[in-house]
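Fig. S4 source data, part A: sequence.
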Amino acid sequence: MRILKFIASILICQCAGLVGSLFTTSTIPTWYATLEKPFFNPPNWIFGPVWTLLFILMGIALFLIWDKGWKNKKIKIAMIIFGVQLILNIFWSILFFGFLSPFYAFVEIIFLWLAILVTIIYFYQISRPASWLLVPYILWVSFASVLNFYIWRLNI
């Protein structure tokens, strides 16, 4: 049963990345390529491997929480908050790449960042390793927030 929870946890997070990529992939060589970007914008090829790794870490963190049981109210709340931030993660891709809106994506990424922070806080109360596995994620989203802001401002 534990191995199924582990696999499901990884797959849930990777599926979020897959859904996000449905909105991203086609607009990178077209719309995104035409945008002014700040000097610190990473090359396009780096985003796929970074997000894949982050979704793996998120999946492991989810498993560590889920593995503690489902009957505890704190665990249920932590997993619901995790689900909210995962949905917000997908929604950012929809706004930025699907709707071609760096402004609305920037507004949304603030909520995503806050949801990740709350997830880390709740996970910390249940499993410190699970919370630490989300630190690279919040750091990357912090960087992505700054990048999103500059892309929006440079393309007004």
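Fig. S4 source data, part B ends here. DSSP finds seven helices and no strands in the chain.
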